[in-house]
């Protein structure tokens, strides 16, 4: 019971698909899939198409933002009375917030007429990538110790 | 970004007599405020002497790569080294040691044969894909319109070159940060291109290629003024403008007495030799999608407020 937040399967799946697509299209921003032959696997050539994966990342980022906004509202107006965040949940919510924040900054920077200083650009990019790696590691560890749940029922 | 050191005097300091022509009114003010500056290249004046090419080298030599050899062996084997360090004097294409070169074309137009010389370098796009898609934060666009690759940070993955509509940035293996990280497995050097002499512009001096030109081919100034001048110039010679709208707008405007399609067909193209083809705004979809992601959370909040998905919680703990 402790291993999963008491959300429906449907919700769980949408969230996992969204995060997976974001992780893959995000990693594809680094020129590694071609170098390591992954984009040579039939059907995976798109992994080396930087524009395609970039747009995909934007689209799923929009999905994720919609999903997170909905969850925030539901949390504060409904769920909060019945559920409480687990420690692992809190940690991942913090990391996610950082990822979303740096992602938004990056999107703003990519709009016409916006300029960040070279130092700021670097900080935003490194933070985005670093937080994602941390979130990945955290998620794997929590799954291994069977503490996947973001939240559990209050007693 | 503001630079108090920039005065009309410093901007002019390096210019010879008559050099004031290359500086549009408002440039000093714009540079001081970190406003977007653009350059204009009057192709009807360029005689292809190559002075700008050599001035660029001389002025930027201290930035050129000093690769350490032997290069770290690459994994996997398909990763090729790009080594220009033994061919530093190549000047008929872009290389890590040659950020500017002259393309020449002989084209017939309006019953006349025109010989046109075209100084080529980075266009300094207004919304540059090289900077927007750099995953490592090494390439960025500055408020004054300069697009620059930070050679301390670049890993040389060459993505900027792949996404650049003109394939401008050029790689040198064996230099840069990747050597300190995982030299065999990630990165492959540093990418180099014209940085519009950022260090000179920061001090209020015009870029080296502009300063040296005996024919005053180039002009630098606030973008709006440069665009205006480009149109007036094109009108005066019944000519054409390239760079104003290409890739959504650049800060390098070419004015030519012959259509750019004809130049594009006549110039020698290939690696390090960009074309003059029409280029759509490569970032347009992202610009629109960014708007979508502003609306997305609003939709999410609305869905939450309306209670849509409130049932996303399993009421019954045992449900699987
Ligand atoms: S120095 Fe001037 S005239 Fe000579 S090639 Fe360069 S732009 Fe043309
Ligand atoms: S011309 Fe290419 S390298 Fe230069 S700013 Fe535009 S996209 Fe970047
Ligand atoms: S602006 Fe500076 S770096 Fe760029 S081509 Fe001219 S001299 Fe070279």
Describe the overall structure:
The complex is a heterodimer of chains A (155) and B (320). Chain A has 155 residues and is mainly alpha-helical. Chain A has 2 domains: 81 residues; 73 residues. A two-stranded antiparallel sheet of chain A has the order 1-2. In chain A, α1 packs antiparallel against α2. Chain A is globular. The mean pLDDT of chain A is 88. Chain B has a single domain, classed as Alpha-Beta Plaits (2-Layer Sandwich). With 320 residues, chain B is α+β, with helices and mostly antiparallel strands. The longest helix of chain B has 22 residues. In chain B, β4 and β5 form a beta hairpin. Chain B has a 4-stranded mixed beta sheet. Chains A and B meet through α2, α3 and α4 of A and α4, α5 and α10 of B. The site of one iron/sulfur cluster has 13 residues of chain B, from α3 and α7.
Main sheet properties of chain B? 4 strands, mixed
End-to-end distance of chain B:
57 Å
What's the level 1 CATH class of chain B?
Alpha Beta
Order of strands across the widest beta sheet of chain A? 1-2
Question: Which pair of protein chains has the largest interface, and what are the residue counts?
Answer: A-B, 56 and 59 residues
Shape, per Cα inertia axes of chain A: globular
Uncertain runs of chain B with pLDDT below 50, 5 residues or more? 12-20
Rg of chain B, Cα atoms, Å: 23 Å
Count of individual domains of chain A: 2
- Kindly report the average pLDDT value of chain A: 88
Structural class of chain A: mainly alpha
Question: Got a strand count of chain B?
Answer: 10
Please give the oligomerization state of what you see: heterodimer
- Beta content of chain A comes to under 5%
Q: What small molecules are bound in this structure?
A: iron/sulfur cluster
- How many angstroms separate the termini of chain A? 13 Å
Structural class of chain B: alpha+beta
Overall, the morphology of chain B is: globular
